[in-house]
Predict the structure.
Amino acid sequence: MRHLDIVDLRADYGSHTVLERINLEVGKGEIVSLIGPSGSGKSTLLRVILGLLPPIAGEVRIGGQTIDYRNKRDVKAIRSRVAVVFQQYNLFQNMDVLRNVTIAPVKVKGRPRAEVEEEAKLLLTRVGLGDKLKSYPDQLSGGQQQRVAIARALALKPEILLLDEVTSALDPELVNEVLDTIRDLATEGMTMLIVSHEMAFVREVSSKVVFMAAGHVVETGPPKQIFDNPQMARTQDFVGKIL
Ligand code: ADP
Ligand code: MG
């Protein structure tokens, strides 16, 4: 079943078209990875899905339902169905770990604190931080902070998780703990659209890889095709440079 469906999507920044005729499907429980040079429009695509930049043309469908980005109710609904984690984790520095994870479900969704806290503790245990509930962000490593950010996104019980270069700001020795967390989510069947430069990881976890360049989808295929036998010259060029 198609969970996230992007059809002929176009988005502009002012007079500059940054995404053109983007087509992409993510099945339920599938992991699709977006790769491509810097500036190719990967982050912009995630921003459009979240309603942070309204599309000029085309459609985004979630579970078969077309999102009307001019409709505030639709945009609000999408923010609770789709969660995002960015490269910069932006935790609240003045709140402990538990509070960072519970604040949105309690304040935005109005859910009972005790119930949300129980769920948050489970989530934090799941990302390996069950013993850090009372720590503050500046007492944690970058990898730990990024895992708090992932737990915070999951606390909203999203159907779909978008991850934008979540390991790019981390020291190399901290990358794996975050990738392990993502691997676990994959095993549990979370639908994910991932932007990542960790090509070995992309190759391992993705059911499909989408190569973008200059605002277009150049090639889509299983990791084996994209990395071992790319069909398009631009994909060959990119893969040749990074591997
Ligand atoms: P990627 O994530 O693949 O590196 P981006 O989606 O960030 O690429 O950027 C795609 C294009 O959009 C680039 O040409 C970039 O300069 C431009 N761009 C990104 N953000 C903005 C913005 N806020 N205003 C204007 N142009 C932007
Ligand atoms: Mg980006």
Remarks:
- Strands lie at 2-13, 16-27, 31-35, 57-62, 65-66, 82-85, 160-164, 191-195, 208-213, 216-221.
- The two ends are 33 Å apart (CA to CA).
- The mean pLDDT is 95.
- Residues 172-187 form the longest helix (16 residues).
